Sequence to fold (373 residues):
Amino acid sequence: MKFAIFLSLLTASAMAADKPARNETSVVLDATGVKNLGVETTAAEEAAFERTVFVLGEIEHTCESHAVLSSRVAGRIVEVLQHEGDFVKKGELLVRVESRQPGDPPPVIELKAPADGLVIRSEAHLGAPVEPDKELMEILDLSTVWVNAKVPQHQASLLAEGLAAKIRVPALGPDEHVATFVRLGVGSDPAAGSVEAVFELPNPGNKLRPGMRAELSLIASKRDGVLSVPRESLQGDRSNRFVFIKDYELENTFVRTQVSVGEISGERVEITAGLFPGDEVVTRGAYALSFAGKGSASLKEALDAAHGHPHKEDGTEMSAEEVAAAANGGGDDGHDHGHGATSPLTLFLAITCGVLFVLLLALPFFFRGRAKA
Fold:
């Protein structure tokens, strides 16, 4: 019986001793706190992982895309049907020119688009004289464009035929496009230590225009079955990397978990240790959670750190009057006056010691009574 009592107490003590380790790495919020912090999660997954090299570039038109409209005969413009900024189709009527050749009325020449594309320059004006050596319109076919990228010379070995690159054009938002390496450019920049690389990019909506800045991620290698998480999930410095995992038992609880990191590429981070596939990691709101204290987190502290201004304990923002009142009348806040709160672990250990003491006092009387019987 003594052994059974001792074993039960030992098990309870072991369970109690295990709780601080969990609490010290847990951040506990309520539903309002999760909403105010904007916490979002996603599952860690094993998938294809691409090692990329980031470079900058610029959109250019291809060498075959340029066309010019001109007249074979001299005359005067009597009608202009398309203007600068218009998209035209090959064979579409653009300008009518009244010839200088004699006639009653004089013959009218129709000038049609030599190719599909965007009219980027027009010198065609109603009544203007026309000469055979004068360009009336300049047309660019933008169905396919080039991206001229500046690639560091020590990365130039990656530039093999067919190399893919993910391209984002900030002017058009976060959407990514896939381009293919076609050739090296004609020049290099010794001062910057870079070479020119030309990538071909389809432009079905004709939204990409020459001169737009582009951000390229050259796909250097690709591996399958790599466990990774979004880059925004990763917190800490290089010597102490961690993520927050959604607790699988407790609602609105997030566990700070140490991880080992492999390659970091684009928006994904390879995780070599610390996570399992399917773990729900915090993406948005991870930075704010990293400011929370150990055990039950202070939502106020997390929001203050993330947003840079004071909040109430429930996470709502304080008004200017409330901020002023807290500054003037909060002199006693944060002082315990020697009366610290008793933690659940301390209370449990105190009760356990009391029970053990009573049992130790009672055991001699118990066995003495058994002996007399």
